[in-house]
């Protein structure tokens, strides 16, 4: 009995720490990697710097200048491909400022070419809600006969200017062949049905791998070298 109580308490504390870490992070989905980890590191640093400049918040810019914004590809031990890029800010307030100011601007953020997008770092429960909401978005759009609804994190939003449904909407072909409308926010998959997120989502990119670990690179003070992140979402 005592062991069960201890294990339950330990799990709660562990979940609390993980949740607090996720509250400080955003995730860039769909940003391609280079086979050379050094080139990927340089590309990721440039992307984050561009996102920080794009949000135009002085506090976020200062945090970047001071080396307080950390980032890594997740999971760290998996071979390079299309791993999510996790970006951790010093606190939740700065995380929200970065994300909100990027989303407040019309159209797709220039640092994020299609089909990449940015969102909060979601917990396993939130990822499940996202999957369920994705299906609801697809059904609503099919019922409306247009791209009238989208997904932001795990919440459903409506578009001010609906667009025609892409050909083969709701199938895997939509996710791989449909070009994104330039006016859609970057954190919403471009087909509107979430198919892109299904292919590029955080949980889909964290399956176990038999490949060896990526060689460590220490070029930038912004890089998160905490190996604990390799085992977390």
UniProtKB/TrEMBL annotation:
Residues 171-183, 191-221 have a biased composition (Low complexity). Residues 160-233 are annotated as: Disordered. Residues 224-233 have a biased composition (Basic and acidic residues). This is Uncharacterized protein.
